Structure formats: structure tokens, C-alpha cells
Amino acid sequence: MGRIFSNRVLGVLFLALLLLMVWTVNAVFTQKFLSFDKVQLNTDTIGLQLPARADVKVRGVIVGQVMEAKSGADGAVLTLGIKPNKIDQIPDNVTASILPKTLFGEKYVELVIPKDASTTPLKKGDRITQTALPIEVEKVLNDIYPLLRAVQPAELNYTLNALASALEGRGEAIGENIETLNSYLKRFNPQVPALVEDLRLLSKVSGTYADVAPQIAATLRNTVKTGDTLLSRQAKLNAFFKDVSSFSATAKTFLDANGDNIVELGQLSAPQTKLLNRYSAEFPCLLRGLVDQAPLLANTFRGFVFHIDLITLPRQPRGYGPQDRQVYGADNGPACLGLPNPKVPFTGVPNLNDGVNGLQRGDAQRTAPNVDAYSTNPAGSDSQKAFFNALTAPVMGVPASDVPDLTTLLFGPLAAGTQVSVR
């Protein structure tokens, strides 16, 4: 009985010793017998292959391990355990990078000491930030990791061998190409803001073109129709171009012969052009007045009969004398004088200096020289008709007997101091 009890005790002790050995091996493996000073590492992501108890290194030397990884408000927070005898050798402005040991191997934390390292050592509870460049490398590796898992090793090996064969012996040329690309990018980078602005403006222009696209399409359709029309009339166009060519040759001959004369004409007509420019403001109302008077003139000669009323003026001016030498004294500038709708009778005749002295101005009309309105015979008498015929015959270049009665009828009231109005 005592022997059986002794065997059972030995079995229990063996099992306890075996469990103690397993726990001891696990504790040694997990470094539970070691103490660490914990610091925090803030990082955007930790990737896919950062294992528990991952190494923490400084310049390739292991100084601790990753104790814990958890998510935070702005990314992930790693708890790093730094060996107490190593933490005093690490400056407090150190940064960290999460790097793979091999291309596709597990990752570790590399503490990067900057060039301007602080003299203050890292302390327990401090926070470390992650560098930017390893984040980009890590992101690339994380992005291609699912792809690499999907690719079969044999096919990947074949592709890598083909790529190695293609690049073999071309390293120097590839390096030169990369340097050339780098020089291009250095010149291109300062223009990136301008490029972004151009792209922004391009979007606005594209919107404008999108709005007018129907009009552009309609214009193109009309252009096709115009092209078809020109094609159908090609013979006429050719004849037209030949005529233009002939006219050009004729015009060239004319200009060669008269070019100097045209230039001289322009020089000589400069004063007249300036005068026309000065009075150009009254041309519209003058032309409009002439157009409006056309129906009145047609009504005056209706039925091929001249319809007028002759009214004797109450005031008769003296006749012209030798001292009345005409001059051009119009200096009042452009004036429409009531045109195109003048008042009837018109009383706005300007009082201009025309060289005639001592005569009444305004509404009074002047009589011919040596003609006294109070001593002449009544208008239309034979003696007055003969007088006016003799007076107007030299002007018309015909004998006095051939002067038309209409001339005497019109000129008589003017010379005798009467006014002609249209009825």
C-alpha cells in the first residue's frame, strides 16, 4: 500500500515538474523574466506582418520589443518595451519606422536617431512619432501583399527571371534615364500649381463647351450643307475666281499707272474731307428731309401741272449795289435748321455775313439790281415778262424769245421781291 502511494506521488511530482518546465520555457521565450520601460508609438497603420513581441532596434541593435498594439483615434498605438539599460542611450526626439526584415518577411520597429539628436534621453511613458517615408513603403507593400498571395510562385519566378534577363546589362542606361527623368521632374514640379489651375479652368471651359455643344453641332451641320452647295457650284466658283484674277490684273495695271494720282487725289481732297467731316452731323437730317419732301414735290407737279401760290411780301428790301460783293461767311457749323420736319412757313434763316451791306435779313428776300418793287408793272404783265426773259436769256444761253414761261414765272417773284410757297 505504501509503495502504491509512493508511485502516485512520484507521478504527480513528475507531471508538476513537466508543467513547470513548459511554463519556464514559455516564460523565457516570452521574456517574462525581463523588465522593460514602456513608451508609446503613434502610427497610421501597422501593416499585416507585425507580430507580437516584434523586435525594436536602434541602428540594427535590439533594444526592446513590441509589447502591445491597439487602435487609437488617429491610427494605431504601439506599446514598445525598451530595455532599462538601453533607454538612456536613446534621445527623446527619436522617430520610428516599421520595416520588413525581408521583402515579404515579418516586420520590426526601427528607431531612427536624427542628425540633430537631443541630449535629453528617452524616458518611460514618452511618445514617439512615425517617419513619413516608411509609411509610403509600408503602404505599397500592404497594397501588393494580396496580389502576391494570389500569384502562383512558379509564375512569379518565371516573371522575375524574365525581368532580370531584360534588365541585365542595362543598369547604366536605366540609371541615366532615371537621372534624366529626375531632371525633368525638378523642372516640372514648380509648374504643378499652374497645371492644377489650368485643369481647374479647363473644367470651366469644358462646361461652357458642353452648354454650346448643340449650337456647335448645328453649325457643323450647316457647314456640311454649305460645303455641298459650294461643291455643286464648283464650275461657277471657278469662273468667278478667274474673273477675280482678271480683275486683279486689270486693277494692278490701273494702280501702276494711276497710283501716284490716287495718292495726290487723297492729299488734295484732305481739306474737302475735313469739311465734310465737320458737317457730317447734318447729313442724316438733310437726306431725311429730302426724302420727306419727295411726296410734296410730286404733289406740286401732280397732273403735269405746276401748283403754286404767289404772295407779295409786305417788306421790300433795296436792290443789290456795286458795294455788295458776295463772300462766304457761313461759320455757324452743322445745323439741321428744322429738318427733317421744318416748320411752314420757315422763319429760322440764319443771319450770315454774305458781303451784302444794308439789306434786311431774315425773312426778307432781296430784289435784283435796279428793280423797284413799287414802280414795276404787275407780275405777269407783258412788259415784266419781256424784262425777265431778257434778264434770264444770257444765263440759259438761249434767245429771249425762247425763254420758257415757267422760268419767268419762277424768277419773276424772286427778282421782284415776292415769296413762292407750295400748295
Automatic annotation (TrEMBL):
Pfam families with a match to the protein in the record: Mce4_CUP1, MlaD
GO cellular component entries: extracellular region
Domain Mammalian cell entry C-terminal as annotated: residue spans: 119-334
Superkingdom of origin: Bacteria
UniProt-listed InterPro entries: Mce, Mce/MlaD, Mce_C, MlaD_Phospholipid_Transporter
One GO BP annotation of this record: biological process involved in interaction with host
Domain Mce/MlaD residues, every copy: 40-111
Alphabetized PANTHER family for the sequence: INTERMEMBRANE PHOSPHOLIPID TRANSPORT SYSTEM BINDING PROTEIN MLAD-RELATED, MCE-FAMILY PROTEIN MCE4A
Protein name: MCE family protein
Organism lineage: Bacteria, Bacillati, Actinomycetota, Actinomycetes, Propionibacteriales
